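INFO batch 0412 | record 1 of 1 | parsing
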Amino acid sequence: IFGMLLARDILSFFIFFEIITFLVFFLVQEGNKLGYKLSDEASIRYIIWALIGTSLMLAAVVLLFSKVGSFGYVEIAGYLSQVQSPFVLLVFLLFTFGFLVEAAIMPFHIWAPLTFAEAPTAVSVVLSTVVKNISIYFLILFVFTLFGVNLFTTIMPTVAGSPLVFTILQWFSVITIFISTFAAVNSEDLKKLIAWSSIAQGGFVLLGLFLLTPLGVTGAILHLINEVIFTAILFFVAGNVIYVTHIKDLSELGGLIKKMPITFLAMLCGVMGAVGIPPLNGFVSKYLI
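INFO prediction complete | emitting tokens
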């Protein structure tokens, strides 16, 4: 991840992104040692979807190099600022779909609920907070620095105040929020419930981003930070409950408030943050969005 952050060209960025993909594949399989029966299936499902996403990004990298003759961010940004053609939209969509796979935004979320639930809890924390959100972070950087929002207003019609592609992505985000929340409410698996909640929070972040308004983008970045905090808390709570009780089925859990009061307090704070109850951080960022 530090390699991605410190990369100064798009090829180095892609290589480090690919390394993360393969490391996650092996980390998820560690769930077998802890009694998670579907870890192998989860890791295979993850790697298939991740390779689809990275393949799309690789195609974008190759297309850009064929036109620009350089992998450098500065050279690519300079070229994109001068070209107004469907080629720019194609490259943007390839990158965006690649990021959306890793960010688990519908309809590219198929891998996430099972993978988050069947990985060791520490790995679930890394997946849901770091790996998922670093993809959203780089999508924000690519939209506003590499491509630039003004570019899209010149190459496509505007719908509801946003370029068409961003209007479509707004609806992807809204659908992700509604369906993931419904799935979380109806989930009996403790870790899978938190996984669906994390996917829904990613929908909020991208909705704020794709609105392309100052408050929306501010709320998106703040919610990105907030979501890391309360999703990590909730997964650590789940891990602690499973460690003590060896149960992750919600229908079999109950009465733990006396046995695990500190864990209960942490869970309460995490849930209130995720739901967006004032005065906690989740309320502030959701209110801005």
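INFO post-check: DSSP finds 13 helices and two strands in the chain.
INFO record closed
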